[in-house]
Amino acid sequence: MDIEFLLNGETVRVLGEPATRTLLDWLREKRHLQGTKEGCNEGDCGACTVTVTSLAGDSLRHQALNACILFLPQLQGKSVRTVEGLSGPNGELHPVQQAMIEHHGSQCGFCTPGFVMSMATAHQNGDRNHNDVLAGNLCRCTGYAPIVRAAEAASDLPVPDWMTDETETLRTMARGGDDGVSFIPETIEQLANWYSKNPDATLVGGATDVGLWVTKRLMELPKLCFIAQVAELNEVTISDTEIRFGAAVNMTRVQEVMADYHPDFSEMVRRYGSTQVRNAATIGGNIANGSPIGDGPPALIALGGICAKARPPAACRLRISSSLTASRTSPRASLWPRFRSRVKRIT
Ligand SMILES: Cc1cc2nc3c(=O)[nH]c(=O)nc-3n(C[C@H](O)[C@H](O)[C@H](O)COP(=O)(O)OP(=O)(O)OC[C@H]3O[C@@H](n4cnc5c(N)ncnc54)[C@H](O)[C@@H]3O)c2cc1C
Ligand code: FES
Ligand code: FES
């Protein structure tokens, strides 16, 4: 598939790569950007953390993500910043890099680029929850105190002016894509039509499960549909009686939304994976994967959660409790665009 995105501010077009090529492999092997490290290759250690920026309405959303379980088509129309793209044009260090030096936040250094990218993303977002931000980055030698001190020190400094606003460039970039065997739909209509003709395709939300099928189980996935760009699947609507999540809403957003309505649910999601995993993982994938150890379904069942199923063969609604019939089976075989749960506003 023809993929276009920004890499450290420069537009790149990727042609002829398999749709399951991970960003990490492509960066290291094709672009020789080897600052992004491979530790676990399964989303656990954060050594491969990059910043991915995307348009969210009129503003930009900056997210720390694990490049090892991120497929290239997931980057269509987005901007990727790696540790090589963090310093200024004359070699000036980014405030978090400088702070890591001053606070002795690195020993062996293998984990350091990942830490720096998590910190730089949080710095750009003005996020001062340093412990949560750094929970997805493992360091076995320095200990976390100097790293957290570095993050605290940097958070008082402004975002450097070389971290330019890419809104206008991102607006001009392609969003969808179709090469016959992999598809990036932009609307729910496109998705439902394509999927009804290709029911054997693998749907990909955040790829925090599917990514591991490729990197760990070495599975071949001949047909893929990347659903996260579909606008309707990213909507959250709240009425007096229910909260409705599009299936591609990520767990970070679930955590934020639930904080006002079900604070305990939100607190549980804070412990889900890590910042990088919550930024990628979708509520749809968390239910549809049928995992016996998934965290979302028990809470949603308790809240009377309902899945809305699209074609094929016909739209229907189902309680989450009855949709999960057996471990890792239903409802993966169908497209599940929406989930809702009862709202009990905590006052
Ligand atoms: C390091 C790490 C930590 C994790 N920690 C946790 C944790 O703490 N708690 C937890 O519950 N899980 C955890 N997970 C598992 C995983 O993140 C979740 O299950 C996640 O919600 C999956 O969502 P996704 O969008 O990434 O799914 P994907 O990997 O994209 O897809 C998973 C499955 O669901 C299907 N699918 C996706 N969207 C839809 C849809 N709309 N309709 C139908 N089928 C669909 C896919 O085809 C695939 O079969 C972790 C994973 C990793 C790698
Ligand atoms: S290499 Fe460990 S999270 Fe990616
Ligand atoms: S500096 Fe050595 S593991 Fe992090």
Topology of helices and strands:
Elements: E1 3-7, E2 10-14, H1 23-30, E3 49-56, E4 59-66, E5 79-81, H2 95-102, H3 112-125, H4 130-134, H5 144-155, H6 167-171, E6 177-178, E7 182-184, H7 188-197, E8 202-204, H8 210-215, E9 224-226, E10 236-238, E11 242-246, H9 251-261, H10 263-270, H11 275-280, H12 283-288, H13 296-302, E12 306-309, E13 316-319, H14 320-323, E14 338-342
Parallel strand pairs: 1-5, 7-9, 8-9
Antiparallel strand pairs: 1-2, 3-4, 3-5, 6-7, 10-11, 11-14, 12-13, 12-14
Flavin-adenine dinucleotide (FAD) binds next to strand 8, helix 11 and helix 12.
Report the total helices: 14
Mean pLDDT: 91
Overall SS class: alpha+beta
- Portion in beta strands: 15-25%
Bound molecules: flavin-adenine dinucleotide, FE2/S2 (inorganic) cluster
- For the record, give the distance between the C-alpha atoms at the N and C termini, rounded to a whole number: 49 Å
Unreliable stretches covering 5 or more consecutive residues: none
Order of helices and strands: EEHEEEHHHHHEEHEHEEEHHHHHEEHE
Count of individual beta strands: 14
CATH topology of one domain: Uridine Diphospho-n-acetylenolpyruvylglucosamine Reductase, domain 3
CATH architecture of one domain: 2-Layer Sandwich
Instruction: State the CATH class of one domain.
Output: Alpha Beta
